[in-house]
Every structure is written in structure tokens, then in C-alpha cells.
Amino acid sequence: MGGWKGRDVKGGRGFAIYKLPKHKVHQSIGMGLKYFYLDPSTATWQRSKHLVNMTESALGRTLQQLYSTYQLKVSDRAYFIYNDGAPSMPYDMKHGHTKGVLLFDKAQGFWLSHSVPNFPPFPNKDYSWPSSGKKYGQTLFCFTYQYSQLAEIGRQFLYYNPHVYNWTLPDTFLPDLSNLQFVAKGGRVSNSPWIRHTELTSSGGVRFQSFAKYKDFEDDIYAGWVAQTLKTDLLVETWNGSKHELPSNCSLPKHVYNVVRVQLPGPALFYSYNDHSKWCVSLRYRDQWICIGDLNRTFGQMWRSGGLLCTQHPNIYKAFRRSVSWYKNCSDAQSCNRGNIDLEV
What we know:
Elements (H helix, E strand, L loop, with lengths): L14 E5 L15 E4 L7 E2 L10 H14 L6 E6 L15 E6 L3 E7 L23 E9 L3 H11 L3 E5 L9 H7 L10 E7 L5 E7 L7 H10 L3 E5 L17 E9 L3 E4 L6 E5 L7 E4 L12 E6 L2 H8 L2 E4 L18
Parallel strand pairs: 11-12
Antiparallel strand pairs: 1-2, 1-7, 2-3, 4-5, 4-8, 5-6, 6-7, 9-10, 10-16, 11-14, 12-13, 12-17, 14-15, 15-16
Helix pairs in contact: 2-3
């Protein structure tokens, strides 16, 4: 993208960040600001020398492009910032349980998908990390795409139904990206099918399968759709701090198992109830699927919109797969009560 200053979306490769929770096994309570970094060129997680709230961090340098676009009144860029838990706003249950940023010009741009409520700050602010984002583990996934991919991302957003809390789209991007404008104004898919699956390719050549579901699909995205479509058993790491967690599922041809504990280098060991991340990996190493997205495996989130971005990139897969320390088989999964759905962020 012409003029991009974000050094961390290197050559279009993109990156993943795993922000550590405050509470880790056999360790004193931490700051909740340390993170590990991963991109397609690295063979494993790399501990950052910066904290996630620093402008020098991978995330800070990338999002500085958003704030400079606003501050310098750059007229040839567009952006969309969405979060069902937007900063300084009431929690939004009507839109999708999805969080992220799109920023682009007519050449290319990035799509950041993340799991952090109250983030990022509005463009008229400076980069910062919310105090509410320190307690739990969080994942952030960012890749650069050519402009030609933005229309396809816009079609997926019709199903994501995100709460767009700040956006700008100059007329020069219309009618190419009319779907994004429609979504930003509150539009969404209005008839079945309530799911959409498509392919995306990053500027650096990483190929993705994008899964987007509208709330009327009324099923668990992992067991009911993604595992069966990718034809692979999945290990799913999502926040299980709710008593309404869906149990591991072996009733369909491809099974889904809930991750209980995560281990990153260090060792940084923590349980899923301290982790707000949403990701899954193939159980078998030969399948090599890694997906990062928006939704928890709970009863309530069967009725929320959101999606997953999946790739078979071997380095990204291996780093996440090796992070699974313990998961539940179907035989030891506990049953869940469907009533009294918790408010989940």
C-alpha cells in the first residue's frame, strides 16, 4: 500500500499476537501487557521486548496508520472500526460478536481481527490499550490484502453484522465497496442462506478460507460448520468462563474438542477461563488448519453473528497447535444448561 508506515505487516505477510493474561499457572500475577508475536516467516512464538500498550509494539505501529489517517486528514484512505464492546459505549448484543479494523487505500490495506473489548480508541484519540484488556489472554490477527479483495471482505461483513462505531469511506471507493457502506450504516444479510464461505489471499500470498455466519444460522460455528467443511477434527480454544459452555462434540463426522489449557514459550501456562482468545487448530498435524475469529463455544453464541479466518500455513499452524497443553475428550465433557444465557464479551 503506497505510503504505509506499518513495519509489522512486512511485505504483506501479516502477523498474529498472543497477549498473555494476568493469571498464569505457578506464576505471580503479571501486568497483563506482555505478548508473543508470530508471522509466517517465524517458526515459533517470539516474545516481544515491548508491551502491547506501547506505540513501539507491533500492534501500536500498525494502528498508528489509523490515527495518522485521521490526524493528517488523509483523503485517499478509508477505515472501519467495529466492536460489540466499543469504547465508552454500552455493550451491543444486537450486532455480531466480532471485533476489528479495516484500513485501506486504492492499492491495498489491512484487516485486523481481534478479541479485545473496548479497543481500539476512536481515531481522534491516541493509541492506547484498555485497562479491561489486561486481565484475559487475547489474540489479534492482521494481514494485508490487495484492494481487489476488499469487496469480498465487504460481502462477508454482511453476515458478520459488525457494530461499526467509527468509519470513513470517501466517494472514490464507491460503488466498489457499497457493501461496506451498507454494513457501516447498520445493514446486514436479510435472507437465507445465513452462512457464507469464500477464499481470500493476502498480499504476501497466504491463502485463507473465510467463514461468516449470521445469527439466524443458530448453530455452533465450529462443530456445526467449520470442522465439517474443512473435514478435520478441531481443538477449539475459546473463553470458557461461562457455565453455558458447549461440551466437546463427537456427534458429527468431524469432532470438536474444547481446549482447557494453553502453553506458550517461557513457559507461559494458563487456563481457558483466563483466556479471551477465539481460535482453533486441526487435531491431526497432517491437516494443518488454524482458524482465528470471533465466537466462543457457548450456547448464547450460537445466536450471535461472527466468523473465522482459516489457513493451512505450516508455521502459523504449528505455533498454535503446539500451544495446546490440555483438551477435553467427549467422554469427560460436562453437560451445560441452556437457560439464563450469560452476557459475554
